[in-house]
């Protein structure tokens, strides 16, 4: 990493010790993660109702979703906290999240609504 590239301070705690991991910026003091505005400025993800969703939002699943390769189902009404948006979505799965009782998975924004 070059010393002439200055990273922005953490928007949560204003720490100047931020570092970059891929397209994410991470604050080691408060563990806040975010993307630079320039990276996602032109990329907007909307929920099933057309509301813009952002990293860290809480969303609610609007339809039962079968989990590929498993007999488990994500039930309608399941709240998913602290989502991460995926700019280079594969097969429309543009939300990365962790669901209690199921684990890490990717969701399509068309099957969630902003909580």
Q: Characteristics of this structure?
A:
YjdM_C, 115 residues, three-stranded antiparallel beta sheet, YjdM
Question: Would you kindly provide a written description of the structure presented here, covering whatever features stand out?
Answer:
With 115 residues, the protein is mainly beta. Helix content is 3%, strand content 39%. The protein has one helix and 13 strands. A three-stranded antiparallel beta sheet has the order 1-2-3. It has a three-stranded antiparallel beta sheet with strand order 9-6-13, with no helix packed on it. Strands 10-11-12 form a three-stranded antiparallel beta sheet, with no helix packed on it. A hairpin with a 3-residue loop joins strand 11 and strand 12. The longest helix has 4 residues, at 37-40. It is elongated and about 45 Å long. The termini are far apart. The mean pLDDT is 86.
TL;DR of this structure?
Residues 45-115 form the Protein YjdM C-terminal domain. The protein is mainly beta and 115 residues long.
Alpha-carbon Rg, integer? 16 Å
- What is the structural class? mainly beta
Low-confidence runs of at least 5 consecutive residues: none
Percent strand: 35-45%
Strands, count:
13
Q: In sequence order, what are the helices and strands, one letter per element?
A: EEEHEEEEEEEEEE
Shape: elongated
Lateral strand order in the biggest sheet = 1-2-3
Rounded to the nearest angstrom, the distance between the terminal CA atoms is 39 Å
DSSP helix fraction: under 10%
Domain Protein YjdM C-terminal: 45-115
Pfam families: YjdM (PF03831), Zn_Ribbon_YjdM (PF08274)
Family: Belongs to the YjdM family.
Domain Protein YjdM N-terminal: 7-34
